[in-house]
Amino acid sequence: MALPWRFWQSPRTSDPVYESIGEAMSELDLNLDASRARQQRLWNALAGAELDAIIVTQIEHIQYLIGPKFAWVHSPAAILFADGTATLIAPNEAPDAAAADEILTYEAQWLCTLRNDQRQACSDVLLQYLKSRGKLGKIGVEYSTFSLHLSQQLDATLIDVEPTLYQLRRKKDPDELARLKKAITGTERMYEVARDMIRPGVSELNVFNALQAAAVKEYGEMLTGAGNDYACGAKGGPPRDRLTQDGELYILDLGPAFRGYFADNCRTIAVNGKPTDEQQQTWEIVMQTFAHVTKTVRPGKSCKELFQEVVGILSAAPIGVFDHHLGHGIGLFPHEAPHLNSCWDDVFAEGDVFTVEPGIYDEKLRFGMRLENDYLVTADGVELLSDFPIGLT
Amino acid sequence: MALPWRFWQSPRTSDPVYESIGEAMSELDLNLDASRARQQRLWNALAGAELDAIIVTQIEHIQYLIGPKFAWVHSPAAILFADGTATLIAPNEAPDAAAADEILTYEAQWLCTLRNDQRQACSDVLLQYLKSRGKLGKIGVEYSTFSLHLSQQLDATLIDVEPTLYQLRRKKDPDELARLKKAITGTERMYEVARDMIRPGVSELNVFNALQAAAVKEYGEMLTGAGNDYACGAKGGPPRDRLTQDGELYILDLGPAFRGYFADNCRTIAVNGKPTDEQQQTWEIVMQTFAHVTKTVRPGKSCKELFQEVVGILSAAPIGVFDHHLGHGIGLFPHEAPHLNSCWDDVFAEGDVFTVEPGIYDEKLRFGMRLENDYLVTADGVELLSDFPIGLT
Fold first, then answer.
1. Which of A243, A354, B260, B284 has the largest CB neighbor count within 10 A?
2. φ, ψ for residue B125 (rounded to 5)?
3. Which runs of consecutive H residues, i.e. helices, occur in chain B?
4. What is the four-CA torsion angle of A328, A77, A87, A335, rounded to 10 degrees?
5. Alpha-carbon gap, residue B328 to A72, rounded angstroms
């Protein structure tokens, strides 16, 4: 069978690779050592569970632990064994590099056509392979999506490792941080384009198109996520076939993803370049949030407490309401821990990458604003990752 | 808790709706009658299995059977009962309309923050709800992705309905055909832009950006899929930070999706506007494929036979190889049945929407071409859905 040529919107199936042997090409390249270290951390975190193996099938967990980012149309799997080795089951052919000791393949495409029974095909390869590995009594899996093709055939106790994986994902490694920073640099370019083009009478769809293009140029490749909010004169929402109006505020909450890692930050731009006194006063109050974050956030600080403190700051605004979270972690999913939110009890820890997005909304503000910065928690404070203009004009 | 404002790249969570009561707004709107009819067809197809219920959790099957297209970041579920009723479990709040008799919700977001345990949250609501419905002995589910949160709690025999769903998806309903045609109209605009801008020295990334923008403008909203091939002087692949070269052929295989439905067709453009004699001769041979399709394809024709016939046609080319499928169905996934491919044994049937994509590749052609049209199988032949220019210039 011919191998497939199509990359399926996964621009980096053949990521440049940094291995311990040889020199680093770029901090954005695949770092197999980092993937191996994450495998080890997963085992450490699950030490009490006495698992014989861990099977992951979600694309982002395979990327996290093994390295390559597979396309959404494929159904790979990875098995980590308690002896520290790992096996990847890849679609069609082995990737150029992977943090795996063994790589098997399943037939994802026949003469290039994607099969609709890929998960079964991958599972069949996996089950056959496990026969050669001896009895596995206890296996960690992702409960949300673990295929019945596997669970009905495996004579093993299955333990949910998804919560543990999400806990581990919270602390970003240097290779992850590099990709997050690149994703955020994309948003910087997008706001530059936005500030150039926004005026009354501009189509939201044209703004969307121009900003997406700016991110693609910055990344030098397709985005792996397009989000977030492109509706003008609204709290949020997708771009519409609608023209911006004089006097409105345009909340641009941008969340493009680079090689799987999601940026997320927000600027609000006065469409006519002349914010009203009320809009400007509101902006000044919202901006106090960031000074407070810089002053107070360090490892050990309660996220819920920070949320409540910012509720206090924003309540000083003469008009408008703040009625959503203050922020959240970012990474391989748009929202991760830590949660700057009264519904969770997280505490900041070194290595967190999080957003702070205070907002105030009111019809008189046409119709409000949200400002959002990204931060890394360091040993004794925070580093601002979105250090670019934040004004209304 | 505040409801989330963010649409999460799902531009149509609030699709305009066409219900049997009231007038059709547009053939592109949600058609709840069509969803109900699909539910009934699913029951008919599974009549022999004597299921008490069917649970679907994949986004595209919920769209197919219930109507709304939920965002990829959410984890909804739908239950069809043997009495013909349906229940939807939606993230956060009930959608404006759904082909469901009952709508429950699960908390997907708290104060706007997406939970990472959504599948469990949705499953908990579903399990609690099923307690009130009495014993379900036999339930149809999607084996690929059915949550262990559910399968470990349901005291029922689970039957895989995914193959049946894919079979049903093959025959397109009028509401699906309308969206596919809209998706294809997007590609028509994209090729117009491509023909205007392609010349030696154009960046593949700029081509990608301009063509994506053209589709967004045509659809009047964000795409729900961005594919496919934007690499020049290559068989396929994503756009690169690379300039087109004099003498190359640019294979543009475009697969944008509109409200979940994927277009897929291809044009090949001579970068310098002056194809060589060899390139032009190859084009003429490839084009014979379409005449053959129009002449021979009707319900009952073997897809594999067609594939072999086209292999014969293309073998007349003096140089180059054809080494992939001839085509495939399109719909809610980029590749569906029928398979114009020697690895399957499909037979054309009325209602199929399929692609025909002959190609010939050789270094002397720098480096080959692929042409692809989309067709609908009618009662006695085919209707060309991609009736726009197909020349090399």
1. A354
2. -65, -45
3. 32-45, 59-66, 118-131, 148-151, 162-170, 174-197, 204-219, 277-296, 303-314
4. 0
5. 19
Cα–Cα distances (Å) from B301 to A297, B186, B297, B359, B377, in that order, read 68, 30, 6, 22, 11
Q: Contact A119/B144, CB-based, under 8 Å?
A: yes
The upper half-sphere exposure of residue B296, i.e. CA atoms within 13 Å in the direction of its Cβ, equals 18
Q: Which residue, among A243, A324, A361, would best test binding to B if mutated, counting the most B CBs under 10 Å from its CB?
A: A324
Query: Cα-flanking dihedrals φ and ψ of residue B229, to 5°?
Result: -110, 125
Whole-complex ipTM: 0.95
Q: Do A341 and B111 touch (CB under 8 A)?
A: yes
Q: Letter for the amino acid at B170?
A: R
With a cut of 70, say whether residue B96 has pLDDT above it: yes
In this complex, do A145 and B145 lie within 8 Å of one another by their Cβ atoms?
yes
Structural domains of chain B, with CATH: 17-170 (3.40.350.10), 174-384 (3.90.230.10)
Residue B273 CA: distances (Å) to CA of A74, A119, B386:
37, 44, 22
Using 50, 70 and 90 to split pLDDT, how confident is the model at B12?
very low
Q: Are A165 and A42 in contact (CB under 8 A)?
A: yes
- Minimum-distance CB partner of B341 among A110, A145, A333: A110
CB nearest to A148's CB, from B116, B143, B209: B143
Enter the DSSP assignment of A68: -
Q: For position B227, what pLDDT does the model report?
A: 86
- The answer to whether the beta carbons of residues A187 and A228 sit under 8 Å apart is no
How many angstroms away from the CA of B251 is the closest CA of chain A? 12
Among B6, B143, B339, select the one facing A228 at the smallest CB separation: B6
Cβ-proximal residues to B145 (8 Å cutoff; 6+ apart), any chain = A119, A145, A147, B57, B58
Q: Which of B55-64, B128-137, B244-253 has the lowest mean pLDDT?
A: B128-137
> Measured in Å, how far apart are chain A's first and last C-alpha atoms?
57
Tell me how far apart the alpha carbons of residues B226 and B211 are, in angstroms, rounded to a whole number.
10
Question: Is the pLDDT confidence value at B299 over 80?
Answer: yes
Residue A285: DSSP 8-state: H
Contact B205/A228, CB-based, under 8 Å?
Answer: no
Choose, out of B75, B92, B123, B143, the residue to mutate when testing the contact with A (most A CBs < 10 Å): B143
